[in-house]
Amino acid sequence: MVTEGLAVRPAGVIADRLPGALVRDAALVAGGAALTGAAAQIAVSIEPLSPVPLSGQTFAVLIVGAALGPVRGVAAMALYLAVGVAGVPWFAQGSSGAGAASFGYVVGFVLAAAVVGALARRGGDRTPVRTVGTMIAGNLAIYAVGVPYLALARDLSAVAAVEAGVVPFLAGDALKVLLAAGLLPGAWLLTRRAGR
């Protein structure tokens, strides 16, 4: 305790002076980025089908966007992007920087988090059917940035970019969408029960 005249106030640290919501939001943003970085390490090369590895990071991006909403989700993916560009090897297969063929997908994660977060805020993750639609929209956002970048980075035609940057991932994307369709509505059910 610190005494100021007759008044007594508790000692503390700087973090004690920050509003609770700000600290929580910062922790959620950092956690979302870290979860994506960890999921990116679950990766398998699928060359020669694609120079982009098959990884768990897209699943993490979609879950983070839905769980954190558009603002915190975008902040988490922007942090993931910025830290990876700065050299931390937490993109797929331990890569970093903007030189990888898959870098456009990482940029697309920011857009996907915005799309998925906005749809989740409107109830797009409350039922399995709505969650499927939300996750498909998120995947399309990732492809909307990733495929053109891949075409430019590898000097591919539009058709070749789709063949290398979309087709090999469709089965995995379908599995991720189905997992999310079970996970997110289930999480909502648990939170409703806990709130009673």
From TrEMBL:
InterPro entries: BioY. It holds the Pfam family BioY. The keyword Nucleotidyltransferase does not apply. The keyword Lipoprotein does not apply. It comes from Dactylosporangium sucinum. It is a multi-pass membrane protein. One of its GO terms (cellular component) is plasma membrane. Belongs to the BioY family. It is found in: Cell membrane. GO terms for molecular function: biotin transmembrane transporter activity. The lineage of its organism: Bacteria, Bacillati, Actinomycetota, Actinomycetes, Micromonosporales. Keywords: Cell membrane, Membrane, Transmembrane, Transmembrane helix, Transport. This is Biotin transporter. The chain crosses the membrane at residues 58-83, 103-120, 132-152, 164-190.
